[in-house]
Amino acid sequence: MFKNLFIILVIGFLSLSPEVCELVAQQSSEEEYIKAELFRAQELAYSNFDDAITTLTEAYLYTKEHKIPLLTAEVLYTAGWIYYVKGMYDESLTHFVEARNLFREQEDFAGEGKSLMGNGLVIQALDRHKEAISIFNQVLKIYEQHQVEEKKASAYINLSISYIEQKEFAEATRVLEEARKFAERYELTSILHHYHNKSGEIAYQMNEFDTAIQHHLAVLNDADTKEANAWEKSYAYAGLAQAYLAKGNLRLAETNALQAMDYARGSQSIWDLERNSAILASVYEARGESQKAYESLRENQRYRDSLYDIKTTQQVNVMHLEEKELENQRLTADMELKETELQSKRIQIIALGVFALLLVLILFLTWKNYKQKGRFAEELRQKNRVIEANQATLVKRNDALSTLDEHKNKLFTIISHDLRSPISSIQQTLVLAEADLIGPEEFTKLTGDLKKQTDATLVMIDNLLQWSHSQLDGVLVNRSAIDLVETVSAILSTYEAGAAFKDIKLKHHKPEGLPRILVDAGHLSVILHNLISNALKFTAEGKKIELDYEQQADELTLKIIDEGTGMNAEKLQEIKSNQEQILSKVGTALETGTGLGLMVVKQFLELNEATFDIQSTPGKGSTFFVSFKTVPADTDL
């Protein structure tokens, strides 16, 4: 950052001088006085900072007293630059913001653009280059919208500095070429000097040392070099020094490095001194002059420490300033909103008054001209339009009610199917207790099971309602990473009482380390409840049901193995191919069903990119295979 900051200071004044010249052209005594004060403050900025601020304070009070807002904005803008040169970024940013607001109020878009440019340079000086790039692009948009073509050159130069700091040399070269075009078009000699110096820096970074030397010499050998200030010459000599050092020409490297130090001391630029002393130390080290290299390094460390202190302090100050600015913006927005609301209420009151007067007038005219057929005809047409609109509204509402009724019927059908098995198992357990077929200890144990099964059934009801609600606008799928083993265990616990009632053993294998699956949680609940309840329904007393898992490359398969009645080939084909309601069979304990369960299972599996298969032997049982996509190991879900 520090090796570029000295250029930033000069570029801002390129935007200042033309505005001051415009003030001179207006030939007023007040403007002449302010113009002289601004130039005097600029000259004092590097030699006597306190006098420069005093001069600007007097100019500011003068413009406020004589109510010249544009000149007040110019004073604030100049103060921003002088504070910036001094390294007081918080004060600089404050004055740039005030100047920008005042320029904007006066619709001076050139002034608004250059003040925003000052904001960007402060941010750039704090190494916040992405923010600075964004600000400079905003400046270019302002200049483009309001055809302030000449000022674009400075914005492009500032963009190149941030791009170079971020090592984006292609972008830096592009914007430098744009700066060169505008500099040549408007004969901006100083911008051309910056173009060559920054192009030389890019060439040096790309190890194109001869090209770098050519660019820096273009600054020093220019016929208009007398216009180049100490900063520009210091940067050019420093660029030559580092290029000659890289080429091994230590004599020329030392000569140019010493020249760069002389100009940096003349301009009192701490950023130049830090950069140039580091280059000089490298030259002495290459020449084997250890004592001189050590002295230069010590000097460089002093400047580096000073820059660090300045940067650290000003970063904190600018952050506080930005927080205050955001708070001010919020308060301003609140005030504007309240003012808008107040204005709106005023308008409403006025409108109501006007409306009341108009209403009285209309009533009077209506009473006076009630015999006019045209008026009645128009009123009749208006009433007809209202009736037609109401009829259309009624039709839409009837359609909506019909749709809701269809969804209601679908909801009750699904709930009656998916809740039948859990509620039936609870009922069967209660029948045993009522008939005193179980002892006190077993009843106590079954009470806990009933509580667990009731809680789980409520969860299933919530899942069903969530799914049915999604049907109002079509089936929605919200897939997430789910632990299949854990989910199966939770749902299986709701069927323990029903299994105990039929003396069916539930065996759940729980291998560790299985990957999570990608599925909609509500859909998964419906799928598992249907498959497990069907297994219990068609498994005879004294038999068992096993649940196991099989892992493939990118899938995890749940196997539900029962020792039930099994199915023949015809029934298997019907289940696999039919997408509608399937005729349900009576269970081993005379359980009944609607035939909707497997239809819903197949629909939800398809929506979740899962697959479904059945192997069955009549009289021996069935195995259901449900395969889900697994979540990749490197995915954070």
Low-confidence residue ranges: 5-18, 20-27, 580-584, 586-595
Shape: flat
- Read across the widest sheet, the strand sequence of neighbours is 2-4-5-7-6
Terminal residue distance: 40 Å
Top-tier CATH class of the domain at 419-629: Alpha Beta
- Output the number of helix runs: 23
Query: Can you give the mean pLDDT?
Result: 81
Strand content: 5-15%
**Helix vs. strand class:** alpha+beta
Under CATH, the topology of the domain at 419-629 is which?
Answer: Heat Shock Protein 90
Order of helices and strands, N to C?
Answer: HHHHHHHHHHHHHHHHHHEHHEEHEEHHEE
CATH 2nd-level architecture of the domain at 419-629 = 2-Layer Sandwich
Largest sheet: number of strands, sense, barrel closure = 5 strands, mixed
Secondary structure: number of strands: 7
Over all CA atoms, what is the radius of gyration?
42 Å
Q: Approximately how much helix is present in the residues?
A: over 70%
Give an account of the 3D structure.
This protein is α+β, with helices and mostly antiparallel strands and 637 residues long. Among the domains are: 229-310, Tetratricopeptide repeat domain (Serine Threonine Protein Phosphatase 5, Tetratricopeptide repeat, Alpha Horseshoe), CATH 1.25.40; 347-402; 419-629, Histidine kinase-like ATPase, C-terminal domain (Heat Shock Protein 90, 2-Layer Sandwich). It contains 23 helices and 7 strands. The strands form 2 sheets. A 5-stranded mixed beta sheet has the order 2-4-5-7-6. Strands 1-3 form a two-stranded antiparallel sheet. A hairpin with a 3-residue loop joins strand 4 and strand 5. Helix 5 runs antiparallel to helix 6, helix 11 (209-220) packs antiparallel against helix 12 (230-247) and helix 19 (484-492) crosses helix 21 (521-537). The protein starts with a helix and ends in an 8-residue tail after the last strand. Mean pLDDT is 81; it is low at 5-18, 20-27, 580-584 and 586-595. InterPro entries: HATPase_C_sf, HATPase_dom, His_kinase_dom, HisK_dim/P_dom, HisK_dim/P_sf, Sig_transdc_His_kin-like_C, TPR-like_helical_dom_sf, TPR_rpt. This is histidine kinase.
